[in-house]
Amino acid sequence: MDAPKHSTEITKLIAKLHQAHSFQRQQIADSFQQGLILFTPQLSPRLVNAKVRYVIGETTDTDTLFSQLKLYTQKRSNTEFDLKEWLQECINSPKLKLQETMVWLKDCGEVAVHATTPIQLQAFPILNADQSLESILLHLKDLTLEIQAEAQQRLMNASYAGQFITNAQGLITQPNYAFSAYTGLKPEILETMTYVDWLKKQVTLKVPFGTVMESLLEEGSWSGEVQITASTEAQFYAVLSLSMLMDENRNIEHFIGVLQDITDIHEARSKIEQLAYFDKLTGLANRSLLQNQIEAAIEEITVSQSHAALLLIDLDGFKILNDTLGHMIGDQLLILVAQKLQAVVGSEGLVARLDGDEFAILLKELSQDHYEALQNTLALAHRIQEDLDDRYEISNRSLHCSASIGVHLFAPTLEDNQSDQLIGFANLAMHEAKNLGGNQVHLFENNLCAVAKQRLEMLQALNHSELDDEFQLYFQAQIDQNGKAVAAETLLRWFHPSLGFVPPCDFIPVAEEGRQIIKIGLWVMHKAFLQAKAWNDNQHNIRVSINISPIQFHEQSFVELVIGLVKFTQVNPSHITLELTEGVLIRNTSLALQKIQHLVSLGFHVSIDDFGTGYSSLSYLQRLPLHELKIDQSFIRHIPENPDDVAIVQSILKLAQTKNLSVVAEGVETQDQADFLREQSSELLIQGYLFSKPVPAGVFEERFIQS
Ligand code: C2E
Ligand code: MG
Ligand code: MG
Questions:
Q1: What is the 3-state secondary structure (H, E, C) of 642-684?
Q2: Nearest CA to ligand 1 atom 11
Q3: Which of 100, 122, 142 is the last residue of a domain?
Q4: Ligand number, closest to the Cα atom of 528
Q5: Measured from the CA of 689, which atom of ligand 1 is nearest?
Q6: Protein residues placing their CB within 5 Å of the ion ligand 2
Q7: Which residue, 64, 357, 490, 559, could crosslink 315 as a Cys pair with Cβ 3.0–4.6 Å?
C-alpha cells in the first residue's frame, strides 16, 4: 500500500490504518478530528468514522451514505455536488493521484450541524504493491476556522488601526498591515519579537511598565496613551489597548493589541491647552496653569516634606508708561520682561503672567531645610529684581523699568495652603515692596495679613465716616525770609472712634483705592476755602495750599465742583494754591493741561508737590501755567552734607528761577538746613518742623497771625 506524499497527517494516518488490525481501524479513524470514509474501488464504504456518522447517521449502506451526505457546489446554490461521480472520476483519471475540491455541506436532517459548512474534499488513492487501486480514502476537512481566520486577517488588514495577535508565548504572529506600517517592522521581524520586546523597543508609557502588566494579568486588559518611536523621524501619539485571551483553564492563549494613532487629537489638545493655559502675549503660563501647578506643588511638598515658593512680580510705574506711551510699547516691554524672567529662572521654576504687568514664579522642590530654602528663594528674587532694573530698548526709545517682588515661602504643614491664598500672600508682600518705594524684594510675613486686615477695616471705616466728626484740617506754616508765615499747607487729620488717629499716609492710599477720596477731598476743599476766606477777609494775607489727589483731579466734574465751591464759599481763588503731584500731569496730559489752564484762569495758583520724586520728564513744565515747585523732603533731609542732594536742590532752584516759579522747601527740620537754603535763594519759603508742625487752625492763628 502506497500513499501520496501530500499530507503528513493523512500519510501517518494511512500508515497507522495499514498496520492496524481491522478491528482497530475503526477506533483509529474515529479518533481522527476530521471526517474520513474509506471506500472500496467500487465505491462502497469500508469504514465511516465517527465525525461523518455524526453528520449522516449510522449507516454503511452505499446508497444511503451518498444520499445523506448533502454536498453542494456553492455556498448559495441548490446545485448538488455529485460525490459519487467525482470519486469515480478520481478513480478513472489516468494517473491515480490525490484529488481535491471545495464543497459546501448543508444541514442533513435530524442532526443539527452548521447550516453551511465549507468542506475540503481530498481523495487519496491507496494502491496495492502492483499499483492497482486498493481503496480510496475520502478526507472531509471542515474549513470553517480557516476561513474565519482568513476573514479576520482580512478585516484586520483593512483597519487603519494597528492590530496584532500573539501566540501563547507572546510572539507577534499576526500583525496587520497598519501595525507593520506604524512600527516600521515587517511581519517576519515581528514574528521574532514578543509584544513585551516591542513595548520596550518602541513604546513610551505614561505609567510604570509594572502597572500595565499588573492590569493585563489581573483584569485581562490595559489601555492608555503612549508615545511610539518607530524611528528618530517617526514619532507619534497613540492609544494602545492590550488584552489577553485565556482558555477555560486560565492558560494564556493570545495577547491582542490595538494601536490607534491619536497624533491629530494630541495636537488639537495641545493647541487647546496652549489657549487655555498660556498667555497669548508672552507665551508664559497663565493664572489657571499657575494655580494647577501650585496645587500640584502642595501635594508634592507634602510627600517630600520640602518647601515651595511663590514670587509675585509687579512692574513699577507700568501704568503711567502704558498710558503715556501707548499699549504697543507697553506690550513690547511685557514681552521683554517675560524673556528676562524666563532666562533667569530657566528650568528652576514656572514663570507665569497673571494679568497686566503682574508676573509670578513658582519654585518647587526647594530644600527641606526652611532656612536654606528661604536663602535660595531670596537669592533668586534679588537676582530677578536686579536683572529687571534695567533700560529696555523699544521702538528707538530707551525706557527704564524696575519691579517690586513679593516672596512667599510655603511649607507642607500650613493649613492656608490653597493656591488663591498663597497668591494672595505673595501679593501682600509685593504691595509692601511697592509701599516701601518699589524696586525691591519683600518677604511675606504673617503681620502683612494684619496690615491687609487693617486696610480692610480702614476701608469700611472710611465708607461710614462722619466727615465733620472725624476729620479735621491742620495747617503748617510756610515761612519767608523775614520769618513771617505767608502761607499754610492744609493737612488732613483723621481721628476715628475705634481706630484712633490714622496718619494720612496710611488712609489716603486706601481712600484713593476705594474712591472715598473724592468725597473727602471735596470736604477738605470746602473747609480750606472757608478758612482761607476767613483769614484773608481779616487782611491777614495767608495763602492756603490744598493737596489734591490724582483720583479727585481726574474726576470729570472736578473743575465744575471747584467753581461751585468758589461761588458757595465766596473765596478769592487767588488766595488758594492747589498742590498736584507729578503723576497727575502724566496721565491724560492734554486733558490735565486744559483743567489746569481753566483753574489758573479762575485765579488759582498751581504747585507741584514732592517735586523731583516722580516722572523725570520735565517737558510738562514748559507747557503748564505753574506757579510753584515744592522740593520734596527727601532731598532736604541730608543737606548740606550730601553733595548729590545739594546738587539736586540747586538745580531745582535754578530751574525755578528760569521759569519764574516760587519754591517751597518742605521737611526743613534743622537750622543748618534752613541756613543753607536761605543762602541759595532768599525768596524761597520754608516749611517744616523747624518752625512748626501742622496744627489746628486756632493754634495756627495764635502762633502766626496774632503775633
Ligand atoms: P505732603 O503734601 O508732601 O505733605 C507734607 C508732609 O510732610 C505732611 O505729612 C507733613 O506733616 C510732613 N512734614 C512737614 N514738615 C515736616 C518735617 O519737618 N519733617 C517731617 N519728617 N515731616 C514733615 P502728613 O500730614 O502726614 O501728610 C502726608 C501726605 O498725605 C501729604 O504729603 C499729602 O500727600 C497727603 N495729604 C495730607 N492731607 C491731604 C489732603 O487733604 N488731601 C490729599 N489728597 N492728600 C493729603
Ligand atoms: Mg503737600
Ligand atoms: Mg510734599
A1: CHHHHHHHHHHHHHHHHHCCEEEEECCCCHHHHHHHHHHCCCC
A2: 694
A3: 142
A4: 1
A5: 18
A6: 547, 579, 609
A7: 357
